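Re: that chain you flagged

S.,

Sorry for the slow reply, it's been a week of failed gels. I finally had a moment to sit down with the sequence you sent. For the record, here it is as I used it:
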Amino acid sequence: MANERAVLTLAAGNPVYWQMAINLARSFLWWHKQSDIRFYIVTDLPDELPKDLSGIEIVRMPPDKLGRGFSAKLRLDELSPASKTLFVDADCLVVGNLESVFARFAGRPVSVVGGSISSGDWFGDVGSICSRFGVTALPKFNGGIYYLEPGLLASQACKRARELEQHYDELGLKRLRGRPNDELLMAISMSLHGLEAIPDDGTIMSEPLSCPAELEVSVLRGRSRLVNPPAPDRRHRSWNTLQVVHPVIVHFLGDYTSGWRYRAEARKLQLVMEQGWPAGLAEVFVAVAFSAGQQAIETSKNLARPLYHATFGPKKIAKSP
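Prediction finished late last night. Pasting the C-alpha cells below so you have them in one place:
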C-alpha cells in the first residue's frame, strides 16, 4: 500500500452522513495541516467536496455495495487504504492530533478501545455467547472507531464477522435500530482470533451516552470534557468506570448530532475552513449568535421538564435522521 497511515470514514445511503463526514474531515484537517496521515471518505453518494477539503480522498462505491446499516464496518479490511488505518464514524469530531492514537494501536491487526465482558447483557446474553464459541470473554467497545493493519489476520477476522452476520438472529443477538450490530459480530470474531481491545483510559474516544452529565467540546481550541457522574446520581453509567475524560475523538452517536453543541462546532469549522474566518472570531460569533441562545433554551427545558411530564406525560421521541 502506498500510504502508511490513514483515517477512514463512511458516508453511505443517507445524505445526512455526507455532511457529518464533511464536519469530521474539517476537524481532522484543522489538527493535521502538516501531517502525512491521509483522510478518506468512502461513499455511495454523488456529492462533491467543498473547496476547502481538496486534500481529502474520496472513494466512490456503487449504490448498495457497502451494504445496509452497520454492515459496511465489517468490510473495513477490503476498504482500508493504508498499512495502518483508523476508521472513525462520521458522527465524530477530532479535537487534537491523532499521532498518539496510531502509536497506541501500532502492531495490532484489528483493535478497538474498550475492555472485556464475560457475563451479563450486551445485545445478547454474553455468557451464552462465550460458551457457544468456546471463549472466556469478548472485547466490549463502542464501534465508533476501529483500527486495522491489513493482512491475513485482519482479513480472517473481518471475514468471520461477515459470516456471523448471516446468522445474527440465530445466535440470539439483539438488533440495533433494526440492524445487526457490528460490535457484537466483531467482538466474537476478535475473541476467536485472539485479538483484544486496548484499555479505555478516556483519552482516545468517548461519547455522551457514557458520560451524560457534562459535554464540553471545542475543536478549534483542542478541548473536550465529558463527565460520568458518580453514584447515586441517576445519570451515573455503571458500565463506565471513568468519571471525567478528555478524548481526542468525541463521538456524537445517536441523535447527539442534532444537539446544539455539535451544530456549533460544525458551524465554527465551516466559518474557519470554508470562509476563512480567524478562529477566535468564529468562536465568539457562534457563542453569541447561536450557542448562548441554545443553552438558555436547553436550561429552560430541563427546569420545566418535570412539570411537563407530570401534566402531559413524556413526549414521543422523534425519529432521528
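What I noticed first: Residues 179 and 234 are 29 Å apart (CA to CA).

Talk soon,
D.
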